[in-house]
Amino acid sequence: MSKKYFSSGRIKRTSEIQKTFQKGVRVENGFFKLFSLKEGSSGGGFAVIVGRKYGKAVERNRIKRVYREILRGELKGSVKSVKLLLLPRGLSKKTSYHQLKNRVGEALQTLK
């Protein structure tokens, strides 16, 4: 895993997250909500946001790590001008990595 790709592939600014949340295209299923916003010249990236109602910090951090790894793999070599925002739902806790990876892949295909 390249540290350069990791740092450049994430959305960190609150303004970017809010813009993606408000103006982005939404795809939902029982596992997550995915927002996508195509930006012209600015760089793309992704963010995984997990609220406190999801569980304790250990559970929240685990699901963030899983989804970040899935998104890194799915977005490798793709368009750099797309911003993605992923909000996990409760079913994500009990689901395997491979099932989540398949669901994210399906959602990304829907957005294309």
Walk me through what this model shows.
The chain has 4 helices and 4 strands; from the N terminus they run H-H-E-E-E-H-E-H. With 112 residues, it is α+β, with helices and mostly antiparallel strands. The chain has a single domain, classed as Ribosomal Protein S5, domain 2 (2-Layer Sandwich). Strands 1-2-4-3 form a 4-stranded mixed beta sheet, sandwiched between helices. The longest helix has 19 residues, at 57-75.
Please supply descriptive tags for the structure shown above.
alpha+beta; Ribosomal Protein S5, domain 2; 4 helices; globular
Strand adjacency order, main sheet: 1-2-4-3
Strand content: 15-25%
- Per DSSP E runs of 2 or more residues, the count of β-strands stands at 4
Main sheet attributes: strand count, strand direction, barrel closure: 4 strands, mixed
**Number of helical elements:** 4
How many separate domains?
1
Multimeric state: single chain
Strand and helix order: HHEEEHEH
What structural category characterises the helix and strand content?
alpha+beta
Indicate the CATH topology: Ribosomal Protein S5, domain 2
Text of the CATH class: Alpha Beta
Give the mean pLDDT: 84
The CATH architecture category equals 2-Layer Sandwich
First-to-last CA distance = 26 Å
What's the Cα radius of gyration? 13 Å
Question: Which regions contain 5 or more consecutive residues with pLDDT less than 50?
Answer: 1-7
Shape: globular
